[in-house]
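Page header: ASSEMBLY MODEL / two components / 460 residues total.
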Amino acid sequence: MPRSQPGTSVIVFEPNLCTGCRYCEIACAVWHCGEIDVTRSRIRILFDEGRATERYAAVNCQHCDDALCCAVCPSEALQKDEKTGWVTQNSTKCVGCEMCIVACPLSVPFFDAELKVAQKCDFCLGAPECVKHCSSGALRLCAREEAVQVNARLYLSAKDDR
Amino acid sequence: MSAQSTRIFRFDASGCNGCDIEVLEASALVSLGELGIEIVERPEDANLLIVTGGSNLKSKRELENAYSGMQAPKTVVAVGSCAATMGIFKGGYAMAGPIDTIIPIDLYITGCPPRPQVILAALADVLHLNVEGMAELLRTPQGFRGDPHVDQDKCVGCGACAHVCPADAIEIAGNGSERRVRFMHKDCIFCGSCQDVCPSEAVELRAGRKEWFQAKDASLSEARLSVGACILCGAPYVPGAQLTWALRRIDEKVAVDTADRNALQRSLNVCPRCRRKNIGEVREAKGILASLARRSST
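Prediction written out in full:
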């Protein structure tokens, strides 16, 4: 499986900074679809007031090394770009089998019923709109090496040795 | 109907004329006179109607008139994809068909267009004629695409074939616990797109076609898959075969340790709606990805 070259960056989400404004969803939908249709937004913010802690979460692509979506894609529509580190989807190659949607634990790719293909975050080809429009700094660009540490701190407990 | 009394009237119900040319070709393959078949110029003289095209608003009334004017016993043969389903004209604003919603059809001949040899053989079949050398005429040329066959054991029920099928010939149906993938005979144009995209190589176009049929909902091939339910919401999700396929593919390509693999296997059984709806699930998923990323980076 292809991996990113050193020096690439990814989007990280700090739940304790998020205000739940969901500007990122709107910016994403406008950039990708030309309209405010957040159902087709590539990022999704969850907010649950009922929870004591961890009230916010974001469904956003991690642009993984060893990406599971790329591993299961039968038509090479999902590809890891080693130079930029992005996992992008090619709509002309996608056959709509929904394997990536099943394989990604976050289900970042979603099925576009109109085009009959899967759609996912493409890093806005360089300058992610969600990051640009995040006023609280919950979403930020971060070097991949640092993001590994941040995400391990946020989502893996200390004794979690996996 | 005896062979002596077959009088054919050809009706073009607004097709592209591809099938009409093949019907003409078919009539040139053998001597129709020797078979006791005559092509007539008025529907009133005919007892067999060959219809091509999917019928538009203008030809609909003419078709009804032609059918009602025919002599009994009436036989109607629909030639080509358009006559069966309106083919590429399906959804067109001027269309009034398909033909069987206007007049009853006795036999469908598939293809876009069908081969002339097949038209002749189908006519011989419906008229109970014995045409000399028919088997030789019908033999499919080398490399000719045949019927799609779906392998029940290989199919994962993902539906990619249905998405790419240009003729909408593949029906994904079923109730909650079962998913059926049906290749509909009436629609199929034997293009092979389903074979090209199938992730699990379950579809194969095999030589030797069944090129005419009588029941409109006849399927060429079908697979039945049992669908698993989401472990959180209980709603039907995807066939178990698809999950197995995805996991096997992950095992082949990505080094995953046991703890991550167990977590991944659990997440595969949660439907995407639940995965994207619950904060707990999102955190769990990000944990799996964080763990995989940590492993990749070392």
